[in-house]
């Protein structure tokens, strides 16, 4: 084979590999990888980017009436997303709008995202085996908790408090309906 034929074959192989990676959802930025997730269609809007040790994106679709949480993983110089979860819109005063638990050999995380429509709620406390984590919450602003371990969302133990420390809501599964329950 002459050098020209070898160059053409190599170029075609590179193009084929690039096309394969692109079709598989690999991208050069985390956001592009999140948008390439098969469940994130054009009608989804970005609500929040959550990037600490793990990378998550929270989208919402008014057309589908749901929130979608997407996890993005880095692979060498590229990013990809194979995992997502969704939660339908709700009318409750305090609602979970995103959440996901991931477990890979090199990465573990639990994301828990809330939205309050109740001005009386001042803070949320998530009770973990490592202690309580408390955060202030603002009406109509997403609040997230990101933990460096994998725990199913339905096993999260959380309580909402008013500014005086009175319990208002707790997060619990009641009759196979996982949601915030008013106290």
How does the SSE layout of this entry go?
Layout: H1 3-23, H2 30-36, E1 45-51, E2 55-61, E3 66-75, E4 78-88, E5 94-103, E6 108-116, E7 123-128, E8 131-136, E9 143-147, E10 157-161, E11 167-174, E12 177-182
Antiparallel strand pairs: 1-2, 2-3, 3-4, 5-6, 6-9, 7-8, 7-10, 10-11, 11-12
Describe this structure in words.
There is one protein chain. 15% of the residues lie in helices and 49% in strands. It has one domain (3-182). It is elongated, with a radius of gyration of 21 Å. The protein has 2 helices and 12 strands; from the N terminus they run H-H-E-E-E-E-E-E-E-E-E-E-E-E. The mean pLDDT is 88. The protein has helices spanning 3-23, 30-36, and strands at 45-51, 55-61, 66-75, 78-88, 94-103, 108-116, 123-128, 131-136, 143-147, 157-161, 167-174, 177-182. A 5-stranded antiparallel beta sheet has the order 8-7-10-11-12, with no helix packed on it. A 4-stranded antiparallel beta sheet has the order 1-2-3-4. A 3-stranded antiparallel beta sheet has the order 5-6-9, with no helix packed on it. By secondary structure, the chain is α+β, with helices and mostly antiparallel strands. A hairpin with a 3-residue loop joins strand 1 (45-51) and strand 2 (55-61).
